[in-house]
Amino acid sequence: MSALQQTLVVLKPDAVQRGINGEIISRFEKAGLKIVGMKMVSPDEKHFHEHYEGISQLITRWGKDIYNVTLSQMTEGPVIAIVLEGIEAVKHVRKMVGATDPLESPPGTIRGDFTHLSRAYTNERNGTLPNVVHASGDPDEAKKEIALWFQPEEIYQYKNVHEEVLRGRVPKTPES
Question: What is this structure's pTM?
Answer without folding.
Answer: 0.89
